[in-house]
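Good day; I would like, with your permission, to put a structural problem before you. What I wish to show you is a protein chain and, alongside it, a tokenised description of its three-dimensional fold. Thank you for your consideration; the sequence and its tokens are set out here:
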Amino acid sequence: MQARGVARTTIEDIQAAAGVSSSQLYHYFADKAALVAAVIELQGQRVLDVQHLGLDRLTCLDDLWRWRDLVVGIRTAQNCIGGCPLGSLASDLSETDALARAQLARWFAEWERVLRDGLAAMAAAGQFTSGTDTDRLALALLAATQGGLLLSQVNRETIALAAAMDTVITQIGAHLTEAARLAVRRS
């Protein structure tokens, strides 16, 4: 499904790839929609697992830069082949499958929550100036990352991904207090 897209992948394709009979497949999945829902859950969890690798201990701007390096490093290791599993599924399903769109929106909201919680923890530690909208910054960082992932897939290079993430993280850094800014190793 990730290689061909959901609409262009048949049940027969899945059976052949998995090496199972139709009765085995239908034992676990009532229909293709149930299989697609399971794929979304699997891919959503995989994407969030990667985010947690870089964001679970978000305590300062340097941690965001390390997360950025992790994301760019993964894309580099993949030779920018394939897009974000969630982004690819969203592109494929959002206009044709309301249930899948809602399921994908939940995963994107979870990814945004991870970012938002990390920035909120930094704010609670007094690292941001008064009035900093960390919710909006988290959303901007997710949007920049998604756009960068798409462009890295199209262009087969990470320049756009790095530029998008760098720009938003730099903008986040502009909201740091003077004390927090002095503690940043990377700018």
Notes: The chain is about 70% helix and 0% strand. The chain has a mean pLDDT of 91. The radius of gyration is 19 Å.
